[in-house]
Automatic annotation (TrEMBL):
InterPro entries: CHP02117. Keywords: Membrane, Transmembrane, Transmembrane helix. It holds the Pfam family DUF2459. This is TIGR02117 family protein. The chain crosses the membrane at residues 12-34.
């Protein structure tokens, strides 16, 4: 026989489960709806002094990819080839991504995701990292699109990326040694806190807005950005 106490517990569990499912559904609907709302590029026509840059996704994270060196910025003054396992100085481009430090360092694949890591990331409970990857010229495709930046737009993007790094007392970026996904990438300490409403893709989307490029009004997912480039 089911006692009144058991009934109350079962009812409480049902209400809690329903509330969680409802919150998840609302989040996904909001993400889809606001991702579809475009923020138009300030300058849709490529400027004569355009900078070659790219928007690149690995299927989960979106990176902003820019020239390693240009008249405006030499990124090797900030991030070093020597911090990557290969230390390959022939790479001409560098990609920047921002995200939860636990996800980046402790979860190389989704199969290794721990519930504790996910909870900390979603609810403002962990620190963040910058992920930098050196590239040869990226190959265009569904997950890689070109960006056409004027010098002024690139200057704003440079400032946005630089300001995302956490610096030490001497003003230097802080390399997280011993961590990489492959031969050409490295991790660094970052500012801000990852959460449900500001994810790695939200960061990339904000960078696009700062640079006057097409973007979503808000998106936590990479596809929310790429909708506006396909």
């Amino acid at each position: 026989m089911i006692t009144p106490v058991v009934r109350k517990i079962a009812k409480g569990v049902a209400w809690t489960g329903g509330g969680i499912l409802g919150a998840v559904a609302l989040y996904l609907v909001a993400a889809a709806g606001l991702s579809a709302v475009p923020v138009a590029a300030e300058n849709p026509d490529a400027a004569p002094d355009e900078v070659e840059a790219y928007l690149l996704s690995n299927g989960v994270h979106t990176d902003l990819v820019v020239p390693v060196r240009s008249p405006q910025m030499d990124w090797t003054r900030l991030v070093s080839y020597a911090h990557t396992p290969a230390a390959d100085t022939s790479m001409q481009f560098v990609g920047f991504g921002w995200g939860d430090k636990g996800f980046y360092l402790d979860t190389p694949t989704w199969a290794e995701l721990k519930p504790s890591t996910a909870v900390k990331a979603m609810f403002w409970m962990s620190t963040t990292a910058m992920h930098t990857t050196f590239h040869h010229r990226p190959t265009l495709g569904p997950d890689c699109v070109p960006l056409h930046l004027s010098r002024a737009e690139y200057a704003r993007l440079i400032q946005f990326i630089e300001s995302s790094f956490a610096h030490d007392a001497q003003g230097r970026v802080q390399h997280i040694a011993g961590h990489s996904y492959g031969q050409h990438d490295a991790f660094y300490e970052a500012k801000r806190t990852y959460n449900l409403f500001y994810t790695c893709n939200s960061w990339a989307n904000e960078g696009l807005k700062k640079a006057g490029q097409k973007a979503a009004l808000w998106t936590p997912f990479d596809f929310g950005i790429f909708w506006h480039y396909r």
